[in-house]
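Backbone geometry:
***
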Amino acid sequence: MSAIIYSTRNGKKLINQTRPYNIYENIIANNKCQRYMFTIEFQKEVFSVFLVNINWQCQNKSLFSSVECVKTGIAMEQENLQQAEELQNNEQLSSDTLNDETQNEVSVQGQPTPIEKTPEKEVPVWDFSSFNTDEIISHMKALIDDFPVQRLKVLDSLPQVFEAQYQKEYDKALAEYTKDGSPAETFDYQDNSKERFYSVYRTYREKKTEFYKKLEEEKEQNLKDKLQIIEELKDLIQHEESLNKTYQDFKNLQDRWRNTGMVPQAQANNLLETYHHHVENFFNYVKINKELRDLDLKKNLDAKNTLIEQATALLEDNNVGNAFRQLQSLHAQWKEIGPVAKEHQEEAWNRFKEVTDKINDAYHKFFDTLREEQENNLKLKEEICRKLEEYAALNIEKISDLNTAADGVLALQEEWKHAGTIPIKERNRLYKRYRAACDAFFNKKRQYFQEIQNMQSQNLTKKIALCEKVEAIKESTDWRATTSKIIEYQREWKTIGPVPKKVSNKIWNRFRSACDYFFDRKSELAKNLNADQVKNLELKKALIEEVRNFQLTGNTDEDIETLKAFQTRWAEIGFVPIKEKDAVQTEFRKLINAHFDLLDIDEFDKNIERFKSKINTFDNSDDKVSKIIQEREKLVNKIKQLETDLHAWENNIGFFSKSNKSEGLIREFTAKIENARHKLSLMQEKLKLIDGMI
């Protein structure tokens, strides 16, 4: 063995010769207590580099002699080579052993944990294309509720499957609707499955986004934690405590490292190499004895044997996908465990690799079988399309032939539904062919029923006209004449033929509701005409006569107060029979407004007083609040419109040039603006009166 010793201060070569170990003893005896780097060559190859603090070793001869210090360093560096070699072997998961998915899933994991006897709950493998829309939604919701979103990649392509199934059900419903001759244009598909599906699917996407966001945050935090552990590990070599205390701190850091979760994949390998580098530095620095080192290697071997047993147990798992996923976790844990004794290294890895190859083979065979099934399904669906195209080409002459063909098409559609999945690259092409054949057949069916549909549409038009006639007179109070007309319309209804089945009940209910509304009003009238309302009616008629006979005195203030008193008395009288309500109300307001028109006040005040008379009548109404709100909304809308017009006119008048021709337009717009301002002021005052009642 030859030794080349360099000074780390100036890089100067100190010794380069072949001598036994006492060469180091001479160097140490003559040193100036500097820190040197020893590069050990064996068979002309440099295989290790390490640092020795000579001064520290000379001061701790109770633990190691100066010669033993160097010898121990060399021996431990040889062990470091074994550890590094095994670490390298552990990281060499080639494409022959693991596919891309395996390599992506290998990451920095914690301490290996044994596989439980009860395997992880299996995600059901369902053929969603064989479900109806409600089943797709319920099964998707069950998966989201029962399994972590990261295991539900099958849901990513589910919208395409759902849309295809939704279209099938729509077409089926349309075919059923038009089967009896109903026009397709009146078809109203009452189904909310699409809204429910995308509501549940959004929940899945949100959970998935939240999971990966949280996972990345956890990885970043784990990276920070592990970098902190490495820093603390580096600081251990600076401690001046007892070896036992320092080693216990080191074991605590190892436990923290193993219990810290995954880190971002980009930093995983470098982080692991850095960690093992500093672990080895620690071993070198504190000079852990050979027995302790062997014990640690034995613990690593036991842990790797446990992983091999767990991997072997996965061979019995019938769920190939689940076994494959768990294998990725075992490989990640294998990398974390650390080195074993060199004599066991190759044997342990070969055992683990053998089990890995078997699981990978089973995984690939599983997907080969799936591809074969999809090819068989493709042939079946091709045959279904061929038969549908034959039905679409039939020359249909009788209704019985049409019904027979329709039954055959529906049976083929049902067979398509249960035919299973096909290769992704063929799905769009084949579905378009299937859809085109179905559409061609049902278009021919619709054309056959077109004549019948036209006749039913004409009957529907006649019945709608009768409905409108009854609805136009259902509010009438001319009870005798209106009753005769409605009975006549009912007789005419019976002479009209059938209408499309879909709207038959609807149009009948509309007609009957209008008739019933009138006759219910007629019946209600008899119940509501009680003695009190009749008495109130007489009182209001008497007050109307009193107002009609009232003569203005010429004193405007007194006359206004008198007219207001008439309105107050009117409001206090109470309800009258409903059929007379509008008539007496209109007559009373007409008389009051006529008196206000004769008062010696300007038009603005007259309008205000007439408006007060109008809104005061609201107090005697069942729906006072509603009428006040309606009146206010009308005023607000008119004010807004008038303000808009006024602004436009004021802007436009500035564009007219000064000439004889434009003077007339200017005068016209000026008059409009003044009139609009007057109306605006009046409506704003009315709005104040309304607001005072709310």
